[in-house]
């Protein structure tokens, strides 16, 4: 009986260990030149949920940690401006590391239809100091709010007190369409009330003071800020409903009008 228990424990531990692995590789162009800044991401084959992502370094290399959970197959993707998107099914390895080798991207062909070149927008795009999440790439429920969406984004974490970090860096401000929502720096009303299905993108950048934004100075805060972009045509109806639901405080009334 004891031997059986040890066997089952070992098998269970091995399964859990196999679910977590590191995916490595290198991205190059057709001329074998390494591509820096390519977005690499892995999705579930069952529901296309993004499970992990990363960005290639100066030598085109990437390394991302993946928790495959109950998945046996995953979809590996690479996106880079000016090149055709790359996708490949991969089996979840039994080892804790899997190397994709060299991934060669093909040039975009200008004669082709734009839709067939670009295809579906990648769930995550990293450009310079900005991480941009495509909201429609992350599965949410009908009644989910902005906070529920953010909790599904890779790299975004909420602690027990509601503080937010992105890849371990503190978030100092949350805006909606580039502005404070109802005068709140951390956007609590937006997070609790904004329906997830009206959100187009979630952008993460280095936090800047209003003066730094005005003068174009670089950020020196060491923290991040989140900007929630609303889908076209969705802002007017939502803000009208919210304006009637949160009361008649002058501050709320004044700030609700900017989006109409």
Task: Give the key terms.
260 residues; 7 helices; Ferric Hydroxamate Uptake Protein, Chain A, domain 1; eight-stranded mixed beta sheet; alpha+beta; 2 domains; single chain; globular
Explain how this protein is built.
- Keywords: Signal.
- With 260 residues, the chain is an alpha+beta fold.
- The chain folds into 2 domains: 110 residues, Immunoglobulin-like; 132 residues, Ferric Hydroxamate Uptake Protein, Chain A, domain 1 (Beta Complex).
- The strands form 3 sheets. Strands 8, 9, 10, 11, 12, 13, 14 and 15 form an 8-stranded mixed beta sheet that branches. It has a 4-stranded antiparallel beta sheet with strand order 3-2-5-6, with no helix packed on it. The chain has a 3-stranded mixed beta sheet with strand order 4-1-7.
- The protein is globular and about 50 Å long.
SSE blueprint:
Layout: H1 2-19, E1 20-28, E2 39-44, E3 50-55, E4 61-67, E5 73-79, E6 86-91, E7 97-104, H2 114-118, E8 124-127, E9 130-134, H3 146-152, E10 156-158, E11 164-166, E12 169-176, E13 179-180, H4 188-193, E14 199-206, H5 210-215, E15 224-230, H6 235-245, H7 250-256
Look up the CATH topology of the largest domain.
Answer: Ferric Hydroxamate Uptake Protein, Chain A, domain 1
Helix content: 10-25%
Q: Whole-number average pLDDT?
A: 78
Number of domains: 2
Shape: globular
The CATH architecture term of the largest domain is Beta Complex
- The SSE string, one letter per element, is HEEEEEEEHEEHEEEEHEHEHH
| Helix vs. strand class | alpha+beta
Radius of gyration over all CA atoms, rounded: 21 Å
What about the largest sheet? 8 strands, mixed
Q: How many angstroms separate the termini?
A: 70 Å
- Number of strand elements: 15
Q: Per DSSP, what share of the residues sits in E-state strands of 2 or more residues?
A: 25-35%
- Point out poorly predicted stretches: 4-18, 111-119, 244-260
- The CATH class of the largest domain turns out to be Mainly Beta
| Helix run count | 7
């Amino acid at each position: 009986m004891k031997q059986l228990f040890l066997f089952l424990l070992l098998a269970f531990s091995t399964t859990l260990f196999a679910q977590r692995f590191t995916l490595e590789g290198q991205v190059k162009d057709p001329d074998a030149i390494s591509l820096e800044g390519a977005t690499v991401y892995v999705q579930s084959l069952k529901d296309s949920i993004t499970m992990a992502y990363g960005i290639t370094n100066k030598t085109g290399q990437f390394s991302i940690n993946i928790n495959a959970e109950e998945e046996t197959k995953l979809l590996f993707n690479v996106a880079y401006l000016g090149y055709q998107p790359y996708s490949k099914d991969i089996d979840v390895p039994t080892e804790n590391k899997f190397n994709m080798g060299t991934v060669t991207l093909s040039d975009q062909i200008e004669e082709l239809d734009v839709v067939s070149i670009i295809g579906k927008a990648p769930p995550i795009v990293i450009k310079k100091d900005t991480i941009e999440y495509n909201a429609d790439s992350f599965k949410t429920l009908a009644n989910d709010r902005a906070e529920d969406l953010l909790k599904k984004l890779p790299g975004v974490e909420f602690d027990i007190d509601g503080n937010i970090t992105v890849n371990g860096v503190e978030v100092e401000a949350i805006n909606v369409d580039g502005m404070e929502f109802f005068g709140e720096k951390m956007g609590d009303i937006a997070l609790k009330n904004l329906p997830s299905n009206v959100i187009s993108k979630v952008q993460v950048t280095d936090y800047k003071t209003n003066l730094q934004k005005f003068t174009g100075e670089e950020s020196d805060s060491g923290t991040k800020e989140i900007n929630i972009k609303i889908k076209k045509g969705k802002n007017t109806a939502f803000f009208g409903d919210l304006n009637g639901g949160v009361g008649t405080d002058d501050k709320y009334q004044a700030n609700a009008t900017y989006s109409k």
